[in-house]
Design a protein that fits this description.
With 358 residues, the protein is mainly alpha-helical. The chain is built from 10 helices and 5 strands, in the order E-E-H-H-H-H-E-E-H-H-H-E-H-H-H. Helix 1 packs antiparallel against helix 2 and helix 9 packs antiparallel against helix 10.
């Protein structure tokens, strides 16, 4: 009961107290809930970022070993590595509403609609041209080589937006420090818009704490960007410049050199495998036919046995039924043997093909 006696003729109502407690607690609960959702997105970005750094390092190690000796520099290898990282980041790279406004893009151009391939293409374009572009959304990829033996060191700065609706407002309401000021250290390493806009918002937040009232955001009309944090990913892979030796370089297809190194034993093995596959297909067809005939003969034998059971012994009908049953039994035995033989042939040819493919 919400009502209780507090004295003679006095009644106290606790509903206002409960409403006040709810109003105080619910922002904190919602802040924790929204922060948990955003934390999951950040952890996902860390996992994907680590994989992106790995594929970038591996791509560079493979292409640099050859391209440096063909072109004189590693520009092409770095471009391959950046493209590989962008493809790995494609599943999580998408623009947020505030970023659309800041960059001047039409949101319909990057809607997450269409096929899975179309979504990956859009994510790849956003990752390579925007998120890994230091002059726009502040991210970037650094590729350096060092050491002896050589290794490639890849570092990726990925601008992860704080995009869960309501999180910024609740943070500013509940937190002791405003969100842009609170995320200053986590934003370190980003350039472009996240840095300039973040520093501007920090000045606004510090001014609010000093003068005690809200300072209008003069950039809000054409920026409206959300805060960003920097997801740092690193990977190092050793590599050898095997491209320096011409004989180590990959052969181009349909060249004289490629024809000269053809292994006759492998060609003979390939022909034998093709012939075995054809023989196996024929054996399987024969087994299907023979086992189908056996199934029909078995059904005919069962029908003949039923007829014998239904006729009176000693009558002409019974004698005819017995003769028909004997013929059906002989045919069933013959078809069963043929089915077994065809099945054994299939197993033999399958074993031969598997042995040849080892």
């Amino acid at each position: 009961m919400n009502l209780r006696k507090n004295g003679p003729g006095i009644v106290k109502d606790d509903r206002a107290q409960s409403l006040t407690e709810f109003a105080v607690v619910i922002p904190i609960v919602l802040l924790l809930f929204f922060a948990m959702l955003q934390y999951v997105a950040i952890v996902q970005a860390y996992q994907v970022g680590n994989y992106a750094a790995y594929v970038a390092a591996r791509s560079y190690a493979v292409h640099a070993a050859l391209s440096i000796h063909e072109t004189g520099d590693d520009a092409r290898a770095k471009d391959f590595a950046t493209s590989a990282a962008a493809m790995a980041l494609a599943p999580i790279a998408r623009l947020m509403p505030g970023e659309f406004t800041a960059l001047g893009y039409d949101p319909t151009e990057f809607e997450l609609t269409g096929s899975h391939v179309e979504k990956l293409i859009k994510g790849y374009l956003v990752a390579k041209n925007l998120r890994l572009n230091s002059s726009l959304l502040g991210g970037g990829i650094s590729i350096q080589t060092s050491g002896s033996p050589k290794q490639v060191d890849v570092e990726i700065n990925y601008p992860q937006p704080i995009y869960v609706p309501g999180l910024v407002e609740l943070w500013n309401l509940v937190g002791g420090r405003k969100i842009f000021t609170g995320l200053e250290n986590m934003r370190e390493g980003l350039e472009g818009m996240p840095k300039t806009y973040g520093e501007y918002q920090m000045l606004r937040e510090q001014g609010q704490s000093l003068v005690g009232f809200d300072i209008p955001d003069v950039l809000d009309e054409y920026l409206s960007m959300c805060p960003h944090v920097n997801i740092r990913s690193k990977c190092s892979i050793g590599y050898a410049e095997w491209g320096a030796v011409e004989t180590f370089r990959p052969r181009l297809p349909n060249t004289v050199d490629a024809e000269e190194v053809t292994d006759p034993a492998l060609e003979e093995q390939a022909k034998e495998m093709d012939q075995l596959r054809k023989d196996l297909e024929e054996a399987e067809k024969r087994a299907d036919k023979e086992c189908g005939d056996y199934k029909n003969a078995k059904s005919a034998r069962i029908a003949a046995q039923t007829k014998v059971d239904q006729t009176e012994p000693g009558t002409p009908e019974h004698a005819a039924a017995v003769s028909e049953l004997q013929n059906a039994q002989a045919l069933e035995a013959q078809k069963h043997a043929s089915c077994e033989s065809a099945t054994t042939d299939v197993r033999t040819k399958t074993d031969q093909l598997n042995e040849l493919m080892k």
